[in-house]
## 1
Amino acid sequence: MKSVARIPNKELAIFFIVTVAIFCSLSPSFRTGENFENILVGFSHMGVLAVGQAFPILLGGIDLSVGSIVALAGMVGFDGFLIFGLPGAIVIPVMLATSVVAGIFNGVLITGARLQPFVATLATMAVYRGVTYAISGRQLFPELATRSIDDDLLLGLDNYVGHFPYAFFLLLIVAGLSQLLLAATRFGRDVYAVGGNREAARLAGIPIGRTTAICYAISGFCAGLAALILVSRMTTSQENLGIGIELSAIAAAIVGGASLQGGTGNAIGPVIGAFLLGVILIGLNLVGITTYAQPVLTGLILLGAVYYDRVLLGRRRLRLGKSQ
Amino acid sequence: MRTRTTDTYETSRREVMKNLALGALVAGSSGAALTGTLASSARAAEPAPIKMAFIQFQPHTVSSAWAKGIQDVLSIQPKFGFQLLDGQAKADIQISLMDTVINDGVNVIFVQPVDSVGIGPSIKKAARKGIPVITLNIDSTAKHAAHIEMNHYFGAMEIANAMGTMIGGKGKVAILNAPPGIIIRDQRTNGFVDGMKKYHPDVQIVADQVADWDRKKAQDVLSTILTAHPDLGGVYGVNDSMALGAMDVAKSKGIKLVIFGNDGEKDALEAIEAGDLAGTQYTDVFQQGRFAAAVATVLATGGVQASAFAEQGHLLMPYVIATKETVGTIQTYQRW
């Protein structure tokens, strides 16, 4: 039974299932296949962002710039498709490369220039958003703002297998690989070591700079993937795409069990956290709660989820401590 | 008639409290379920036979007034249900909400798109299910039943004309603008710039800076502009909030500026009456909402298909350039 006890985020998963069950019982429209399809397609990008965000948070850092990286990668795609008329096979790798470079730059600022992650990524959040405005094809060629992107490869992402969107499979791959990376590789152990005790990690000879840079690069890469998903759904991109999305991604990661102190968490919890946000948003709307009450309830439910998760974790630790 | 507005606010506050109570029930039952006793008594009210949803850009005085206008019309017939949703100014959230209301089986969707193209796939999805979509102020590139907007371009042209006349046909003026990426910004800015060229070619637009639709931000931005151009004669805020911010600066520095806003919200009209604001483009936003609702009720109940609007119904709202002379014509019941 040890394996059952080791299932990560068991408490969160139960909370999630119960929340879904309650909305199902309250709203006939909620308990339809189409609704679950909507939640999957509407929040897979959030899941990808939350998994990416888990890496900096595991290090005890944070990445506030992901929303701006989403916009930057999206705008690179917009320009590539609509101004230069390039095919997806070229534009998509360029979008992802842009987001990785943006992530690495965050990492360099944090390790090279020794800036606080909060400060460094707050600054790059503004910088990347500014660059997005500067390169915006919507500003340079205003008539493009009303043209949609019709690249087959990119729009192929907006397809389904039954009720399951491709974006959801992309999320599963990202979360699975990330969990593998964290749980079964040397790099993963380094991440937990640096996040758990930076000084001890340094003394143990762990390459802190490289580990940090890779974590922020992964966060940037995930932002690029999220941009791909969003652009494929919207068939366009915007300068203000992803404003405020970093906070949702951070919330999803924390609800998913990643500790802001670093060193605790995994890549599966954030996915549940992201879909919990989606279930709450769509559930509250389908139950018919007014817009003005929704943010309050969303906050309370999230607090409940985190509290429940932590209280049970605390109790289990207490029990473990006693049995030893 | 002021009481009527107060009533609306009272009602919406009561609505919020009621919903918080219902929500507490949801949260409460979720807690109860965790300990093993699922409370099944919490059930939402029976849905009305004809459901309509309005997905706003984000909560704002303008969209609240639209919602009020829509409800004015729908409340005449009890068979209509209405729900107001918050797009959170995020294109992805808005798309998700579109999918949600389509799945919920609404009969008509009102939407103020965050992005004209981005909302397109969702509008097409609604069309496949035979749900008419009516856009407010921001159009979509996808074909839909109707579009009703303020007359941004020509209104801004007339603002330029009025401002130019008030500053004597020459001098320097500044624009306090919205962030790029929103079509209204471009229409209003272009209208103002073209209007100045046409009516007052000797007036120079010396600054065009972003103040985020926001009164406080507008104060800071205008203070900076005034440092560079102390001889500024006029300011155009592309919404009333920014114009009011400019008015605050003029008042505190004790300088005379000809300030125009856009939209025509209650505070701006009062400032015009007090002589602090030169003018604004006023649109009866209640009426705009009522018109949208009238179209919606016809489409939902008149046996008319959205496709019968072979060409998309497109209405530009009439407006008044409200200045000290004309503001009195806007009745209290028209103020939002």
## 2
Amino acid sequence: MNTTASAVLLTAPAAVPLVVAGAYALPRRRPRPSAAPLAADVIEARRQQSAQGNVLVAEAPARERAPQRHPLDWAGLLSPVVILVCGSLLAADVVDHGPTASYSGLLRADALTAWMLLVVGAVALIACGFAPAYLAVERSARRATEQTVWRYHVLVQAFLAAMCLAVVTANLGVLWVAVEATTIVTAFLVGHRRTRNSVEAAWKYVVICSAGIALAFLGTVLIYYAARQAGIAEAWALDWPTLVARADRLDPAVTRLGITLVVLGFGAKAGLVPLHAWLPDAHGQAPAPVSALMSGVLLSVAFAAILRYRVIADAALGAGFTRALLAGIALLTLALAAGLLLAQRDYKRMLAYSSMEHMSLIALATAIGSPLALTAALLHIAGHGLAKSVAFCASGRIQQITGTTKIGRVRGLLARAPAPAGAFGLAVAALLAFPPFSLFASELGIARAGFAAGAGPAWATAATLLLVLVAFAALAARTARMLLGAGTGAPADSSSSFTVWPLLLGLAACAALGVGTGPLTDVLDAAAQAIGGR
Amino acid sequence: MSGSLYTQLLDLACGGFLLAAVIVLWRRELASIIRVFALQGVALAAIAVLLGAHEGRGDLVGVGLGVGILRAGLLPYLMRRALTVIDADRRRYSVAVTETRETQPLVNVAASLLTAALLTLLAYAAARPLTELHATPATRALPVGLAVVLIGFFVLVTRRRALAQVVGFLLLDNGITATALLATSGVPLIVELGVSFDVLLAVLVLQILTTRVREAFGTTDIDDLRELHD
């Protein structure tokens, strides 16, 4: 691929959401001549979404006391589509020709980048495809005004841009800036409803995540210091490929301190102990599509940073250090999540704790570090992203129908609202790692890799399986209680304002990944190789 | 600038930097805490300018001036504005609660100061490998940055007023910037810009959230935020 094409492919995933965010921000202000290109962009986006709009009409039959249509809500789908297209083109390219870089190495795509872009794009497609119906109900229930909906769109698009920047950059400093930017942008999405609960959740979220991620910056500074002392020039001392290539020359003591801080800091964003306390609150209070994005991809984008640093750490310190650190953190997180799942009374928080459970599985797989384990971890990132985003979207609809997030007040949902309840049930089944969903394959892979990796990892894996069983029981019992039984209320009219296709698409993709990775096999293998699974 | 004068000035600036963090622990009036925080920003800028002058790097002096404007000017201004809003409200409704004072920190002042001493010792112990790697006057002062990071964390955990927590977060951030400056004469410019921008936005977000917390809970006492728990 020539340099211009790769520069465009690397820039577009972050730039297009930013442009869409700008376009959403503009129309409310006075239209100026200079705004013309952006306005044209919106019109273009509107034209592009009309095909999707037809699908919606086809699935939502004519008997609608339908809330008024808001076609601009669909313009948000432009960004996920662009991210997916760029991700697939980059994936095809890096498999054939190896990593590409542009802007003198600032943006760089290897197989891990392509894989993460695909996951971000797919989850964003689910969340942005579900959002218009969700927002329509919020509008008609007077929980959202035109202004808050515009702000919602601007923030979600900026959020996507920040995540994509975090994925495509090769500079560890810019990576940190992008991850911290996601915190700032999502703060207002968490506090969207301005109730006591959501303000409290937003406060905790910003304080804990910002302080946690500040630690990651301190760690980044220490790595930079070690790199400078190892004779790497200032311009390249935060460049990931350079650091990996010359990691053996980094001072071990300084690197150890730096890596510990980095793992704790980015671990805060990834929902790992000790700085995990924000996660259930934020995921429970954010609007459903935002919860889907935060849980489905933000956690794994932050974890991808840990994956990058692990390569440096293993080359500089040997595999033992990060293995012990990550395995310890994974087990503690899992024990905490399983324990709190047992006592859970709120289904959105239940899903949040299930995210912590799955992130700890990914952390454990990273700790094991064999090629099989890393491949399974990457597959788990994708499967968890798809299944969890479907579960959160469906839970948002359930909350709109029942008016509560308490598990105890929801009964017989399958009889009342078959579509959202069915999607929720299938998504939870995927999260419980039932075949054919891909989480079955990845958890099996993690377990096999764990038992093959020697005594220490085998014990950790055994303990993990036991804790996963506890989480399984808690999640299954609560979901069954919500879904099954005789319906209490009148059957809810679910078809008029519920978009099923994004959720079905997500579940189908998750199941397809479980049956076989198909054309993605090459990029998955290459990604596992790029993060050290040689 | 002669070597010994440079070392003395650098140590003076670092000493002032650490002292400001300790005084933040000592004071309870939020207005004076913000004033001390601004002074710490000046000390931080002085460290950057000294390093830049010593190494003859104009860009570092520029970074120092930028850091000074942000940490000693803009951020204290934003916090003072938030404080004025709270204060004006208090006068209007003549509420008895003192929102502008840290009335009951979780740890009292004497214990806080003792903890600060312990944290400084801890920072010196933890920074040993950093200093040994490349011993210069600047890296020998590096534990000061780490000590301020730890003190910032301590403030963040033990203070109950929303604004006092914001100050804790900013102390943490000042400490990290100082560490970066002392260890490596600062991170590359693009990262420095991004970090400063992020910090500024984070403070703006926290300021807006402070207002919302007060609207929703009627106080900025973070201890009252206990509706979400398991």
## 3
Amino acid sequence: MNKIEPSFRPGGKLAKLESVYDGMETFLFTPNATSRSGAHIHDGNDLKRTMITVVVALIPALLFGMYNIGYQHYLAIGQSHEGWFTMFLYGLLAMLPVIIVSYAVGLGIEFISAQIHHKEIQEGFLVTGILIPLIVPINTPLWMTAVATAFAVIFAKEVFGGTGMNIFNVALITRAFLFFAYPSRMSGDEAFVKLDSALGMGKGAVVDGFTGATPLGQVATNVGDQLHMTNIVGEPISCLDAFIGFIPGSPGETSMIAILLGAALLLITGIASWRIMCSVFVGGLGMAALVHALPSATYPASMLDPWTQLCLGGFAFGAVFMATDPVTGARTNVGQYIYGLLIGVFAILIRVYNSGYTEGMMLAILLMNAFAPLIDHCVVSSNIKRRARRAAAKE
Amino acid sequence: MPNKKQFLFGITRDLHYLCAHIIKYNINQTNNHMATVRLKKGFDIQLLGAITNSGIANADQPKSVAVVPDDFHGIIPRMEKKEGEHVVAGEPLYHDKNYEAIKVVAPVSGTVQEVRRGERRHIDAIVITPDGGTDAVTLDVNRDAEQVLLESGLWVMMRQRPYDVVPAPGIRPRDVFVTAFDSAPLAPDLAVVLGDKSKYIAKGVEVLAGLTDGKVYIGVREGQNLDVPGAVVTTFAGPHPAGNVGVQAANVKPVNKGDVVWTMDIVTVARIGELFSTGKVSHDTIVAVTGEMVQQPRYVKSVMGADLETVLKNELTNVVLSRIINGNVLTGVKTEVTQWLRAPYRHITIIPENNKPDEFMGWASLCPSRFSIYRTFTTWLGSLKKPVSFDCRIKGGERAIVRTGEYDAMLPMDIYGEFLIKAIISGDIDKMEQLGIYEVAPEDFALAEFADTSKLELQRIVREGLDRLRAEMS
């Protein structure tokens, strides 16, 4: 690396790629610089390590998501006897292009932006780049994902100043952009179960009676006083299926078990705020219990029992990986409880009482992203007031 | 980062805060009669190279002695002595541009060899070649105590809050805060540093009590016995920065807008006591020489401003690969071996500059010896209390603040550190005031700077904020 360095410095042949060179060098080797002012020693932790730990926490959800894509696919084409490896391989082939597109587009923009501002490439997109494939329905055309990612990175992040400066969660903006720009591809029968072959693998005709709607989608269109939730070939499903994850949905969100594994890692390493995570679940559970106590056929989702509410859809995934984004969430301890609680409440509220949106988590988090600075402002103001009172009492 | 206990403690504390917000009472209210303050926040970094016995070695006579004006922040030097002139120990070398009464004196008798200047004629150091003489200025102490302190050169050893600068004369401080222990990594035992001067503490407190309308507060470590008539002694339990005088003040009687308090350590109090008992200022000093790169960590007795080559004689294992720090690893200043002992510090730390060049993909390390207080690394699986080797690498690039609560966990004050830092960066004077900048000094953010994932230079930021506010207010 040192040998090729001069050509990347100003005046060198490849000076336009200086940020890329720096990015690669600091990726391969821990920066050598020693402190010039202030503290002489520094903790070993840096933002690279922090971000990578989040990516590791997402791996269980990612692997299960791949497997579930294969499982749903082979179920749909009537070959559910296929081995788990075939299913996983199919899911891998189906998801790989999405992951590549997400990283290529996002990192490409980050590299260019870093070079324009002559700054170091920052790590924020490491996590966003893997979150996007996990929350985008598998049948979304790649070009849509690319456009949405580009939109989110440029308008939700870079215009605010890059990593650490954004107001809204970048991955959720990607999802929201898709949701509002291409609504027909984001819900219904054709969004969540991949029926055609993945890179030539898994050809087959779809069985009769197939319906690709997610359980929440089915609930939203439910008629009558009894809920009917089925899997894609019409067999009834239970809360346990949703807990393990064998239901249709966005790749990352279906398995509560995989998400809880990731949550455990985030909590042990202390990267995610347990205050936010716990209060989202408490808020969601409380609100779900409340609506369940007042069931109504007009709002069929109110007939779901609270635990199933939390297991279905993107609630758990959002609570663990999205709401806990420190940059867009509340930053004071007291604020984090309020912030999390309201996310949980709003997610269920939107889910149950707004028939236009079968899933409320995305909108609840984006809404609270917008209010997080206000919550913090109120909490910090009480500190300010206390200080002012103290000064006044003296006189 | 929270362990099980902190986790539970965290919940109860947060609920407590929530209740406090609702019923509007001050959670950090401490009663003057309550003698012990338990601080939960902070961290004790254990470094290799601690002192194992409290014997004191005598250093040789220094070959040169220097006064470094940067040590007395807030003073703009105006020279009184020229190069080549002779000075006696205790004789003024320069005074402050704004307050001529504030004098900085020579620690030894000798000839002013050089007034070393840097960029824009900034005075880097005033170097004196000692003549070995024992002459010293004797002051008439039966006068106004403030005048005596200003003339003696001990005034500049004190600091005031707000701004963490040498106090302005003519202002009676609300209170005086004294710390009797140092909790920083490898810090010396101030009882040893005091040496035979401890007998002057009572006199020093008496003098200071006469200069304030309030009280003299002394902060001691749990188990430390110190009873001084006329002082309010408070015991502090908990990790570093419990020994920071600002942290102690914040937990006893916080500095409000409009208040002025003086801060210092117990050694300065003893020196003041000695001055008023004998009429002379003692410039002898006992420093701890510690750190991984020191052959035999120990206490050394020398003179303030003595050249490091004499003080560190035979102690350095490797000059080239070492970083010599006047003070501790968190707040000290980087010094070359050709330079001198700096007056405000009781402590020299010598650690490796960089002992792991080109660490391959360090961010992916699972190695337990890569020390981190966070559980993203595996240090915590072993012990966070085992002494470790630290070099001066920053180990990461500077980033925007991403993780939450990192600063607050290292700052045992009722202050939202992160919001204060942001207010300083954005230059918002009103916000800085509201968020409590008057209560802090750069050193209070040193531990947060160590722990910061985003690798921001917090002490520099706080210093610039304080300087800016001071300029704005004058």
## 4
Amino acid sequence: MELDIEPNFADTNPKAGVVGQPLTRVDGRAKVTGAAKYSAEYNNVPGLVHGVFKTSDVAKGRITGFDASAAQRAPGVLAILTHQNLPKLAITPDTPEGKKAIGMGVQMGFLPLTSDQIYYAAQPVALVVADTLERAQYAATLLKVQVATEVPTVSYQDPKAKLFDPTKLTVGKTENQPKRGDAQTAFASAPIQLTATYHHAITHHNPMEPGATIAHWEAPDRVTVYDTTQGITWTQKSLSAMLGLPVDQVRVVNKYLGGGFGCKGSTWPHTILTIQAAKAVGRPVKLALTRPQQFTSMGHREDQEQTLRLGATKEGKLLALLHEKTSTTSAWDNYAETNAKIVDLLYDCPHFEAQTQLARANVMTSTYMRAPGEAPGSFAIECAMDDLAYRVGLDPIQIRLLNYAEKDPSTGKPWSSKSLKECYARGAELFGWSKRNPKNGATRAGKTLVGWGMATASYPVHSGQGNARVRLYADGHAVVQAGATDLGTGTYTVITQVAADSLGITPDKIRFELGDSALPSTIVSGGSMAAGTVSSSVYLAAQDVWQKLTKVAVLDKKSPLYQAKPADVEVVKGRLQLKANPSKGEEFAALMQRASMGDVEGIATGRYGAGYESAQAALNASKTKKDDAGEHSMHSFGAHFCEVHVDPELGTVRVTRWVSVVAGGRILNPKTARSQIMGGSIFGIGAALMEGTNRDPNLARYTNASLADYHVCVNLDIPDMTVEFIDEHDPYINAMGVKGIGEISIVGTSAAVGNAIFHATGRRLRALPITPDKVLDAMRQPA
Amino acid sequence: MPADLVTPTDAPQPEDNSRRSFLKLSGGIVGLALAPPLAAQAERLTAYSKTIEGATDLTLRINGQVRTVRAEPRVTLLDALRERLDLTGTKKGCDHGQCGACTVHIDGQRVNSCLTLAVMAQGKEITTIEGLAKGDELHPMQEAFLKHDGFQCGYCTPGQIMSGVACVKEGHAKTDDQAREWMSGNLCRCGAYANILAAVREVAGKA
């Protein structure tokens, strides 16, 4: 048992255990009884008072003064904090040095309440603290803010907007403007040339739980923060930098997270401002964002357009792909989803080129939203491939097989594993694809047009790492710890399963603790990295436990393993035994009791992605190159199949059938995994058909910042869905062989819907969301 | 606020004050649940104040227990539960009746507690997610949600379950499409809809 050669779960646990079984969520009972405590629900913090934001009505301007006379006199008011009196922070993210010190945890390079500038509508301009929520809310309405208003820039489409190349600034030219071969020339001479522009509305994550923070200063230099964050380690680090406190003096807690989808991946202004408010009033403060505030407090997916030029042979073989993206960003940050990556990756194509342009506008910074880049990027490439299939008279699956990438076209590296052909085949079988009428607009159910569409999905295995601790007790129980979060992804459950098999005990004997920065630090639950990283760390920490116990056994005269070489000992289901003679051995409990060991603790760092396969290369690679540092290109793949019914008179589109088949490495729990894939597809169906936040073209304010006006899918929008997984064994990606599945199911989803609408109506709709007005408009045009 | 809203009436009124839906509902099993609880007989002897200003003591009957909470008349039932009674199982997703996360039962009917003032809920039987199980024994709807994985993050779950229980009682879960429609007032952003449907239909099938 040498840890120098990292053990792999597939080798040490060849027989099926609870990993891979459909275990019911271990946190389920707490969730169905209301016992699960979310961030805004720590009411037992002594002396807790309430904070409420006063936000700006205008999108651009300067605060010239406040009239707080009425608000101050309102009953229960403890403080009105503005940029004039907010306790000063050690550092803020609005300088390059500040941003560097604060790290990845804070994405937005501007903190409200630190200057008189207003950059976006609904920007917080004051934080009112009172003894009750209602009194704080009322006092906020009494506060008058005087603003010198300016005319805002609304988006990249605003005539005032100036487009610029962001690669000259933060990202670096080579990373953001990839180029292979000579795409311009290859496109110009291609027998088939397709050029199309795709639009994507602003979308909002809208987790059911709005952002919330409770800040409790337990000492003048020590604060505990209950916060809606997907990454307590990132949050802890960035808060400690901003507060000027050692990292260990900031404790971040999140035991239950009511969804995130990326918007809770970063630390947003309300968290640090609540902490400062608590400092100012000398009492713990709770601040929960209202739903409208959620639209302007934790980012969004940016409004964007992509123009894709596709060159191909007459037979449909790709020759060139040229991708251009234009999107809106905030006044300070150069954030743009990297759509080009998936366009470059999905199909074998010798020539590729991409560029991104941004325009500054009076909006807050957009942010990671479920499959950032892959989701909108796949809409462009997967609609274009569908167009190509029709153009050359091939079935949509056939065109994809014709251009199948046997190695990663963007890097030339072999795949660590790729079961996409199996996904196509199984999906087609489950859906009944072979019965599809190849003609558009030719299938009807009554007066309803019926369409079948499909699309490819893929998501990368990012490089990451994290720590875990396993404490095994002699009585056969274990406590497993990692500072992860479970945003509904099933982390509590799947890690319990991994710990059970790694320790050879049943899941009910294990308590897995997460969501506290006092636990071993690990990666943010984002980028589909958590399951693979945390499971690997826990598995390896268990191996550390066995290594420690083996060392005791071989020294113990009463042990059957006395004087054995540690390398000759294996552990099977909690029993330490000789590899050569398994009958010679004993249970861990007997050994520990004899040695007077109440418990034994193991710790380990688990690596995910390139850092696992090529630790040295990943360590020495630059930040933007870590994912590609391995010898293999690592991705999960999948395929979606969709049936729509389109009412040609009303323009309504209903998704009536759905099949997703995903190859995501080892599936730790098919029950929670199926739910996650369905959920991602539903998220994508929403983006395809109904989701979009509208910014007023003059005032730059959102006009539909509520759940009544921003439409997400409801139960009646969703048909029966079929989800299957392809078995995959991938030894290169991590010790557990797990690829994340949190994001892949939204990739290709909107294209599958759009392709089905194309099949139903003969009309190609390239602006998301595909609402009835757009369908009707298209139906009036010739097919 | 009109003072008569806090005056107890002889019989509970339907949430939407629609006599038609009230008559329809009171005919079935729900009629039993709607019958005034015995405790209300005694409570009715003491007239509620006609006007309320500032914080007063409100008496709420929640999950079979009488709770007293000092709150202003503008306090919603949702905030009374979450902020004053530490019954945080009922969730706030939008505070405007748009998402259903705050669904509770008042006299057996599903109600958005964010659109209900606590003061209006006096003299009525309030059930929250915390009151659904009988001790350690979960309500069949809770069991069905566990079995079918009817949730991910769990934040909409209490509202979905309360809505699901009422949906079955109302007789609105007889077909898949009917249950889908009558459960569409409860948003789930994780997208557990198919599993929620399976749970609600299973319980409806046993009812």
